[in-house]
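Worked example

This section walks through a single chain of length 444. The input is the sequence exactly as stored; nothing has been trimmed or padded.
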Amino acid sequence: MALDVPSPQPSKDSAEDALDALVDGDRILRAGSAGAALRHAVFRRVFIGAFVSNIGNWMQNVVLGAIAYDLTGSAKFVGLLAFAQLGPLLLFSLVGGLLADIFDRRRLLILVTAAQAALSLLLAWEVFGDTPSPATLVVIVFLIGVCNAIFGPTYSTLLPALVGRADLPGAISLNSAQLNGSRVIGPVIGAVVLSSFGASWVFVINAVSYLLVIWALSTVTLPTPAIDTSGPQGVRGLAEGFRVARRDRVVRRSLLIIFTFSLISLAFIAQFPTLADRNLGMAPRSQEYGYLYAAFGFGALLGAISVGTVLSSYNLARVVRASLVAFAFFLAIFSLLRSPLLAYPVVLLVGLAYFAMITSLSTVFQQRLEEASRGRVMALWIMCFAGTVPIGGLLAGVAIDASSVTTVVLLGAGVALGLAAYADLSPRPEELTPSGPSPARSQE
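Given that input, the structure is written out below as tokens.
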């Protein structure tokens, strides 16, 4: 797909050429690898902006969880704040996907990013005092979640336009890597800023980080998406993603896997402060807790990068299954640990298996999609992935208070093992074209 990118100035040409040389060297890059995706200058620019912004987001996310637990000491309130943050992804992602398919994606992203920056500043103002209102925190975080519900599917639709379908696996891997690289850097910076300057400055830094996203998006011009006028339009067009999932076996199974996995197996993420406190004796506002979360994020970073590098020539449908088994094994061990020292390497392996699976599954899933409906189908992915995590967190909070955090996390490990048996995602012969997997019209 051709991109209408403004002609750069000579100085920018030199910078791009220098980076091309650094990325490429004299090597022939495999199509679909991370290196091949980085050859696209427009992708690099947006990638860097998103990476910096997500560092700020994870600073904010970790501090919010710590504030929630510190204010109330309640696993239920931690789950409630997580639901306010991620619940809108379940409620409004379909609307975001529809907007992504019919409006200028670049302008939409800039508008939503500016709103997120303003809301982060509002959070900073609210927590400036010693006793922020729990109800006000929930409202502000909910509004941030609504912005994320629009931003998520819209940003996901950009990847094929930035790199082309051939290099899409590498772009997905790098996008997952920057999300999880920010999980490593963000919590560490957030813990240091929180302990040294207070929570308000964490939210101010996050607000400033959004400016780089706005700059990156303002320097490129993206194609207007092709609008499919053959199907239902307007509000009825919201259901197009469900129609695609019903027709395509791989899309349908991928969504069922990510929904179940996120709802039950990932409940430990929303309850991370509770687990750290009750099983490992780590205070949620301590630097040790920040390092534990960073170890989890570093493992996730390695898992995401592996899909675009060492695993780029492997059958990713099989990688999904193997990663689910590994995740179940390491999560079970993590739930039983009582030693903080051992928890760091084990949670790193949990993160590695987690995002090797997620990145592989996302790649298999996105390679099946058509451009005209990509936003609405990606909205279903975001609903099933991020939107169900807070529901799982709420349910886990109730279950933890009734039993224990160990029991709830062990249940998640068992579900992941069961999903490995279900995860048959290799395309059948009738779902293949001479060029490989393509959007299918199959019945299971």
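What to look for: DSSP finds 19 helices and two strands in the chain.
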